[in-house]
Design goal:
single chain; 13 helices; mainly alpha; 3 strands; globular
Length: 353
Amino acid sequence: MKVARWLFLNVILLTLVGLIFVFESSINESYRTFGTPYALVNQQLLGIVIGIGAFIVASMTSSTLWLRLGPALYVFGVLLLLLIYFPLIGLELNGARRWLNLGFMILQPVEIMKFCLIASFAYWFSKKQRMRPFLVLTTLPLALLLLQPDLGSTLILGGIAVGVFFVAGGSIKKLLLTGLICLPLLLLAVFTSPYRLERVKTFLNPTSDPLGTSFHVTQIELAFGRGGLLGRGIGNSQQKLSYLPESSTDSIFAIVGEEIGFAGTFAVLLLYLCLFFHLYLATKQLESKPGQQLLVYGILFWIAGQTFLNLLATVGLIPLTGEPLPFFSYGRSSLIMILFASGVVIRATRESA
């Protein structure tokens, strides 16, 4: 029960601190777009309310149910990804089709697909590990994501699939061989897409065009530089005033760095590391239940992979990917599904106590 309690505390703290910074980073954007500084934070708060409901449902539902529903959930997730391409419901923004317009809210299907993939793979690979079904079941959703295009989510989903297959006992040699085969395809996806190629060029030479293609990276560096050791103080960010693109979503950690400095960002990182550590402890607690263990491993790979992908891009160690920072970035689909997945883990942990 101690692991479940620590997980609950981690989730609550990250959600609350994330909400504060969504408000801090979105004030100017909210006022400019909606005429009120509270528009985006109110929408995020609605996401938290829905997410809490999803968390409660998940924490009251037997974890074995998600395993039994694994194959059906996989089909459901793929169908959601296909619905994006239907003109009446699929929504295209900035040249990408990644959202469904449900009328009352905008839904990003890939966030649901992440859990669907985890549940289905936990079901299949707890019984047997075969390379051919793994490749087929992984390739279909990844291909649909690349068509959107959404390379960041493709990497996350692919990482989840490989991680679950590996911890289930899959062949390392076959995984390495598959990786070598997929590498040219990944490079092709980068070099055939102008915006992806620009991101790579910007990553290799961040100062090449500070007012053009390098503007985003430059503003992130300015935010961290202004933050220094202790930060400018909560509410005192300058970069959120229309200087830093995606300040409430992809680049929110730069606002965190500017307002609470290196010391504050280090504290936030400790919160994440504490969460990952207790998720890992949950997998150890579930060693007698391989299906539930793979389920929790998948959720660990999901949240940790997405966190590190966002943070590494924000500090300039990899090209910008557009992946949200779990619990922090504005976006209801991601937040709701992560809260739901957290409830699944807590339920599985309690069942094994």
